[in-house]
């Protein structure tokens, strides 16, 4: 009888042992809860515009794509790209079919619809181009007469000031920058709005001299971003990771190198059809 209490005590310890072992894996290395820093759990679906060389060409390749891949790589995130017409990129952003899309100009109309980070991919400048000697009195928005024929790319954003005057213009909407160049050269439009590097890229490709047109005045200077969908549950986190990566690229000098490689035709984006 004197062994019974000891026997019972040992049995109780034996029964309690599995409970102790089961409760032990509460350490961080055994935690089954995924964290957002685990890149294996992150699938970033991005819509790549298919009509804006040298930033993003018909295959979705160019300055924008290279910057995005390099920036996300700093966080161990590998994005997947869907190459789409720009209008489709915006549509899929609205519907939540993709997490983000580029190249979106940040202005009042887009800030109301999408989530943006703090760091732009880059800043672009768009100008009003004329045939030399034509419309000499037009030197600013205020000088442009009503019904002025202006060539623009369908669905592109051209800044808040342009939006204020847009109703006065006779917009000739096309799909490619090369179409604006041809129409302006032939006198079928009064002026064309073109982004500086894109115009240079296309005129070089078309074997045209830059002196063919008069780059008259600045339309707008705009920051171009990856816009993220409000319907994506990790949109703000993805924007933060992209910001961190872009800042690191700028600090290390990789940013300028990547852009230089594309502009120097080390990566040859070709012009695409669009929207």
Describe the structure concisely for a colleague:
The chain is an alpha/beta fold and 275 residues long. The chain has helices spanning 4-23, 63-73, 86-95, 108-111, 160-165, 177-185, 196-205, 235-252, 254-263; strands at residues 45-49, 80-84, 100-105, 122-130, 149-153, 170-174, 191-195, 214-228.
Describe the structure.
Residues 43-266 form the Solute-binding protein family 3/N-terminal domain. This is ABC transporter substrate-binding protein. Residues 1-23 form the signal peptide. Keywords: Signal. The structure is a single chain. The chain has 275 residues and is α/β, with parallel strands linked by helices. The chain folds into 2 domains: 42-123 and 223-263, D-Maltodextrin-Binding Protein, domain 2 (3-Layer(aba) Sandwich), CATH 3.40.190.10; 124-222, 3-Layer(aba) Sandwich (D-Maltodextrin-Binding Protein, domain 2). Helices cover 36% and strands 20% of the residues. It contains 9 helices and 8 strands. It has an 8-stranded mixed sheet with strand order 2-1-3-8-4-7-5-6. It starts with a helix and ends in a 12-residue tail after the last helix.
């Amino acid at each position: 009888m004197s062994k019974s209490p000891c026997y019972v005590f040992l049995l109780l310890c034996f029964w309690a042992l599995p409970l102790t072992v089961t409760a032990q894996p509460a350490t961080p290395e055994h935690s089954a809860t995924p964290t957002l820093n685990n890149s294996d759990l992150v699938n970033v679906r991005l819509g790549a515009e298919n009509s804006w060389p040298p930033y993003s060409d018909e295959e979705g390749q160019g300055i924008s794509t290279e910057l995005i891949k390099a920036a996300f790589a700093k966080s161990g995130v590998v994005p997947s790209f869907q190459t789409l017409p720009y209008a489709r990129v915006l549509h899929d952003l609205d519907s939540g079919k993709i997490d983000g899309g580029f190249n979106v100009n940040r202005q009042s109309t887009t800030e109301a619809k999408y989530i943006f980070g703090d760091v732009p991919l880059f800043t672009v400048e768009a100008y009003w181009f004329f045939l030399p000697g034509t419309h000499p009195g037009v030197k600013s928005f205020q000088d442009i007469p009503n019904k002025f024929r202006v060539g623009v790319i369908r669905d592109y954003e051209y800044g808040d000031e342009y939006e204020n005057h847009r109703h006065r213009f006779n917009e000739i909407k096309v799909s490619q920058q090369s179409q604006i160049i041809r129409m302006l050269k032939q006198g079928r439009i009064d002026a064309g709005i073109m982004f500086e590097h894109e115009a240079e890229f296309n005129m070089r490709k078309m074997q045209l001299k830059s002196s063919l047109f008069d780059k008259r005045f600045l339309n707008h200077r705009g920051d171009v971003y990856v816009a993220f969908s409000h319907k994506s549950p990790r949109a703000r986190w993805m924007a933060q990771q992209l910001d961190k990566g872009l800042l690191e690229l700028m600090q290390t000098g990789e940013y300028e190198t990547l852009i230089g490689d594309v502009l120097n035709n080390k990566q040859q984006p070709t012009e695409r059809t669009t929207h």
